[in-house]
Amino acid sequence: MNPASLQQLLCLNLLLCCTTNQARLTVSPSSSQFFKGDFVSLSCEEDDSSAGWTLRRKAKVQQRTQCGDGWGRWSDSSCNMSYIDPLDSGVYWCESREGPISNMVNLTVTGGSVILQSPVLPVMEGDDVTLLCKTKTTPSNLPAAFYKDGVFIGKEPTGHMTIQHVSRSDEGLYKCDISGHGESPSSWITVTGEELHSDFTSYFIHIFT
Known about the structure:
By secondary structure, this protein is mainly beta. It has helices at residues 3-19, 196-207, and strands spanning 23-28, 33-35, 40-46, 53-59, 65-66, 73-75, 78-81, 90-96, 105-110, 114-117, 123-124, 129-135, 144-148, 151-156, 160-163, 172-178, 182-183, 187-189, 191-192. It folds into two domains: 23-111, Immunoglobulin-like (Sandwich); 112-195, Immunoglobulin-like (Sandwich), CATH 2.60.40.10.
C-alpha cells in the first residue's frame, strides 16, 4: 500500500472514531453549581442508541462508580438525583461498553448560601455568556460582584452578568459574591472554537480531493 493510501485510511479511521457512537452529557438545570438539596438530572444524549451508554462519576470520597450504585436513579434514559449533597461533587461522564466516553462535566454542590450559575458545557467563541449569582433565600437576584481568576470584573444590580462575544481570553475561573450572604464556589468556563470533528472532516475532504 502506498503512503498516500495509508494516510487516507488512517484519516478515515480517525474521522469515523471521532464522529460516530458519541454521546453528550447534559445537565438539567444547566449549571455547574448547585445548592445542597437541589434536584439534578443528567442525561447521555446519544447518536447511536445501541452503544449502551452508562453514566459514571468520580466523586470526592468514592472511586469510579455508576448511576444506581448508591447514588442516583435511572428514569427514561436519565440519571435523577433527587437530593444532591456536597459529597456528590465531582466529575461525571457517559461511558459506552464499547469504550468511547462523552465530554466530562465537573459539578460542585455547596452547603453555603450562594452559587454561580454558569455554562456547564464549553461555549463557542463569539457566543454571549450569562452568569447568574444567586442565593438560596428569597429574593435570589440580589446585587453581586463577579470575579475572574481572583480579579474583580464588575458588579451587577440584579446578579446577572453577560459577557458578550466571548473569546479564548474569557476562559478562566469565575466566582461571585453577594454582600451579607457570602461567596460562591469557583467554576471554570471553557471557550472553544469549531468542533473537533469539523476539523477532521475538512482535512478528510482536503486529502481526497
